[in-house]
Amino acid sequence: LSNRLDGFTESIIRKMTRVARQYDAINLSQGFPDFDPPRELTEELRKVADEGPHQYEITWGSELFREKLALKQTKRMGIPVDPATNIVVTCGSTEAMMAAMMTVCNPGDKVIVFSPFYENYTADAILTGVTPIYVPLAPPEFEYDPATLRHAFEQGVKAIVLCNPSNPTGKVFTLEELEEIARLAVEFDTFVITDEVYEHIVYEPHVHTYMASLPGMFERTLSCSSLSKTYSITGWRLGYIIGPAKVIETCRKVHDFLTVGAAAPLQKAAVKGLEMADAYYEELTGIYERKRTLFLDGLDRIGLKYYKPQGAYYVLVDISEFGEPDDYKFCEWLAKEIGVAAVPGSSFFREDVRQYIRFHFAKKEETLTEALKRLEKLA
Ligand code: GLN
Fold it and tell me: Which domain holds residue 174?
């Protein structure tokens, strides 16, 4: 078998979903909702079953989908997005990130990745023949050290991967941080590959700024995102890359040969989501705000220590006081004996850090309440 695969393990996030099923545990590991998408989308999906399309769409995304996405993102990002030249529709942001990296990097290149990080980035880098240079984010605010970041840029990197709002920390990068990263990207002439799938899940007073919207950054940013989290359709696998026409032209080639295209019927049905009024996004934020309060209040009652997320729907919980040095063993025990599945924190860290587990709270309030009831045994 290929030696390339030695550089990373299977996805621990996806593995924990299997562990949750095995022990019939409440799955707070792999982050996806247990509630339905908006009715507009499911009703349209029923209609599409009768009316189609059921065949291939244009490889880089249906015209209607790109048009509606361009309208929405032009408004949200505050920069003009041209549906004809600035968009590739992908199979989830998972493909978007991989295609983006393959588009801008040669084998042997280096990319900066903040640690902790969403585990796909290492796999993307290794499969692309790229070496990740990790820059630590230090709790409690998960700030980076500016000198370390500059030093990483000095090593001749091709791109920096920026997950904002961030998985697993829930960090929302401040405008000052983004401006600093942008200055470095310009100074060292690098690309920024963003993962902004939690763009609509941001808690006050924090504000998410799109890297591509900063002066001069559109030209060097590949903004990856997806509809999974925003419309609760993780299984539809609809993502996209927005970027400058010249780069997107190459990206489309990569995407075409990787997957030919995202599912045509699902693109059609998802247009109903892209057409939602602003109120939908405010409502979504409100829903997650309530889930966050419910879950974090529960953790407080139990006496668990955690870092309060500023965005996204994850929380890193500190398990050091339980005296189990192996976070994998702890998660296995938690799923089996307590009936709640979490992700061992070390799968997100480059450094040898084993004192955290990650819960997600994208679940119905009753699911979260039941999970907290089970977790009370930890008090
Ligand atoms: N982003 C989700 C998580 O971190 C998982 C997404 C996936 O498995 N593709 O749990």
Answer: 53-274
* Model ipTM over 0.85: yes
Taking the centre of ligand 1 as the mean of its atom positions, its distance from the CA of residue 7, in whole angstroms, is 20
Classify strands 221-226 and 159-163 as parallel, antiparallel or unpaired.
Answer: unpaired
Please say which residue of 227, 259, 274 terminates a domain.
Answer: 274
What is the CA(48)–ligand 1 centre distance, in A? 27
**Any ligand 1 atom below 6 A from CB of 93:** no
pTM: 0.96
Specify whether 329 is located in the same domain as 192.
Answer: no
Instruction: Give, using CA atoms, the residue closest to atom 4 of ligand 1.
Output: 31
CA–CA distance, 308 with 328 (Å, rounded to integer): 22
Q: What is the pLDDT of residues 185-197, one digit of tens each?
A: 999 999 999 999 9
The residue contributing the CA closest to ligand 1 atom 3 is: 31
Do 335 and 194 share a domain, yes or no? no
Query: Distance from the CA of 222 to the center of ligand 1, in angstroms?
Result: 20
- Mean pLDDT, the chain, integer: 97
The verdict on residue 197 lying in a domain is: yes
